[in-house]
Amino acid sequence: MPGDSETSQWRYLRLAAYLASLAAMILLVAFASKPLFYDEPWYLNTVGYLNEFGFSHEFFAKYPGYAGPLITFVHSALEPITHLHAPGVRLVSVGGLIVCLLALAWAAKSIGAKAPWLAGLSLLAIPMVWGSSTLAMTETPAIALGCLGVAAYLASLKASTRWSGWGLALAGGILFSLGITGRQTFLAAIPALALVGLSKEWRAHAAFFVVGSLMVAGPLFLEWGGLSSQFNQARVAANQTRTFNLAYGFLSFGYGAIAALILSPRLFSSLSRKWLILAFAGGIFINLVAFRMHFLPALGIAQSILPDAMLGPMTLLGGSIFFGIGSAFAGTLLHHMWVNQRDSIQLALLAAAGILFFTPVCIAHTFGGRYVFVALPFLLLACLRYQTGNEKWRFARHSIGIAAGIAVGVTQLYIVPIKLWDTAWAPELHLYFPHLLDAHPELLEMIKQ
After folding, report:
1. How far is CA 72 from its chain centroid?
2. 339-365 as b/e, with b when 16 or more CB fall inside 10 Å?
3. Closest Cα partner for 398 from 142, 129, 93?
């Protein structure tokens, strides 16, 4: 039929756009000569801690990163290939993203998506994915394992035999547990994913997944006596670092709203326009009265472009808009969770997305779009339920998202000035690889050698 032919045409164009964007990401990273910056030097340097102390109590106690040590083990294993230099270390992140895409396609197939490969690749249309995936950051290795774990879990629900299903659920939990050791926030998603067990036929699967999800992360947290190393616990206590910021939750849900509009605007159609407007206006009011949060995506670019007189009002406006759309999105997620009480898989995906969008309230430092990456795979899978058949409109939305993602990659790899997120605790570190700070000679004298 002509309609089917047109739909296929737009799907092929969308597939071409995804593959072209992935190729563009690889090229952007491979040809970027920019020295290591942001969090890259801090976490790559932890490989030296592992080399000195080995897999020991001392290593885990002195581990200096807020994110778990998964990133250390990944880059230690690949050090003979990357030599801890760019672009090799950044291509590791791209590889992690490719694993995410494959795992999401597997998961989408397990929940009945009509075009699972397109569903998995559509993660590339979300601009917030590109920030972490083009740098040697902590997110992509953890999220890759987390996605594999969830994909195995969902596949276990369709297994041909009871024992194979239980085994796959346990394996999925173990993979997810490995992901938790790189991104502790995944721990919050375990109760949400256990909601699959509300269906009587899948209670054992959920139990095996939960057990598996604690098998690796549990011993790590027991070793630490908390969710971070003794080194970090002491640092937070000494500096009296703020460990709860509700404003970051609003901003995180604001980023979630942008992702949902790209993936499936129909998600918002379940609430009346009146309620969406009220939630949006309420979020703006809350920021202006209670928080006065100043925020813009790509703030570093805005600071280099906007005059000082405009920066304050523009960032306040940006923060208020994020509060507004974040409030509307949070209300929408809650509504869909209520509606899907009897669909345990959809309920679990929505709940996991919602919880993970909320976890940035625990960030003790500057918030950025990279922190919502952990929630995006769950949102993507949940949004498959609400996608319409208008492939032309979907292609247009995803093309805009891809273009924005490429802009993020180009900006941070080729335009934004080199800087580090946090230098206040540099003197507390032992620098094992001086080349990691080639772009920051002013810090070399500060750091213990």
Report:
1. 18
2. ebeeebbbbbbbbbbbbbbbbbbbbee
3. 129
Listing DSSP states for 205-273 in one string gives HHHHHHHHHHHTHHHHHHHHTSSS-HHHHHHHHHHT-----HHHHHHHHHHHHHHHHHH-GGGGGGS-H
If one compares 4 and 226, the residue with the highest pLDDT of the two is 226
H helical segments located in 54-196: 57-62, 70-82, 88-110, 116-121, 128-133, 139-156, 162-180, 189-193
User: What's the confidence (pLDDT) of residue 301?
Assistant: 62
Q: Specify the amino acid at residue 171.
A: A
Average pLDDT over residues 75-100: 97
Predicted pLDDT at 315: 87
The answer to whether the CB of 211 falls within 8 A of the CB of 172 is: no
- Distance CA(374)–CA(395), nearest Å, equals 24
pLDDT tens across 28-70, in order? 999 998 888 888 988 999 999 999 999 999 999 999 888 999 9
Quote the DSSP letter at residue 367: -
3-state class of 69 per DSSP? coil
Nearest alpha carbon to residue 213 among 152, 162, 123: 152
Is 350:337 a contact under the CB 8 Å cutoff? yes
Least confident piece of the model among 18-27, 153-162, 237-246: 237-246
Query: Which amino acid, 442?
Result: E
Q: Are 415 and 298 in contact (CB under 8 A)?
A: no
Q: Which residues are paired to 448 by β-bridges?
A: 430
Residue range 292-320, pLDDT digits in tens: 888 888 666 666 667 777 888 888 999 99
Reported confidence tier of residue 2, pLDDT bands at 50, 70, 90: very low
In Å, how far are 22, 28, 76, 410, 412 from 134, measured between CA atoms? 11, 8, 19, 9, 9
Q: Residue 248 is encoded by which pair of tokens?
A: 């970051």
Alpha-carbon torsion, ordered 338, 340, 346, 348, to 10 deg: 40
Residue 123 in contact with residue 104, Cβ under 8 Å? yes
The whole model's pTM is what?
0.94
Q: Which residue has the tokens 């920019």?
A: 34
Rounded Cα gap, residues 229 and 236, in angstroms: 11
Peptide bond into 427 cis (omega under 30): no
Q: With b meaning 16 or more CB within 10 Å and e meaning fewer, what string describes 406-420?
A: bebbbebbeebeeeb
